[in-house]
Model the fold of this input.
Amino acid sequence: DGGITQSPKYLFRKEGQNVTLSCEQNLNHDAMYWYRQDPGQGLRLIYYSQIVNDFQKGDIAEGYSVSREKKESFPLTVTSAQKNPTAFYLCASSIPGRNTEAFFGQGTRLTVV
Amino acid sequence: AQSVTQLGSHVSVSEGALVLLRCNYSSSVPPYLFWYVQYPNQGLQLLLKYTTGATLVKGINGFEAEFKKSETSFHLTKPSAHMSDAAEYFCAVSDTGRRALTFGSGTRLQVQP
Done:
């Protein structure tokens, strides 16, 4: 079955450590996205990529980095520069275009301990 | 830039009652609008979308939404609530510039027996 796989589902990080969240899709979508979800704030865009080897900052990119070396993969690194990383992170993909919906993974819950 | 506002962070209805979740949008161009549902600790699932054409859009699980340009609204309705409808619902608009979805802050629907 086609879909988006995020791993791990739960992740614990010590303060000062970098951590990478995995996102893989087999939908053959060109566009991929990372969103952060906090209670009462909806989803906020961190980074997005419309094509391989290209990506752009979203609304809250500070303290995060991404790469897009393969069409199927769009990993997100939460760096030590992100002051409040505890959140639910959602990866999505879509066919590029305004009228197309995004398909979401099951999310990764990151907790700083 | 496009944006959406969801009125009411929490809505509670009785089982069998009408569900009405409100969404207003702001857009300088004809908007493309989406409703998603999220169950606890899961990703988002598309309920329905409006792109062009018929203003009354039918989605999954008995939900529908009506695009009203004069009111800049895209409210989500369901004639009769079911316990399984309890979840969080997000309205989203497609951003013309960066081709990513911009989400509202969400509405948590509670269904009372």
Notes: Chain B has no helices and eleven strands. The mean pLDDT of chain B is 94.
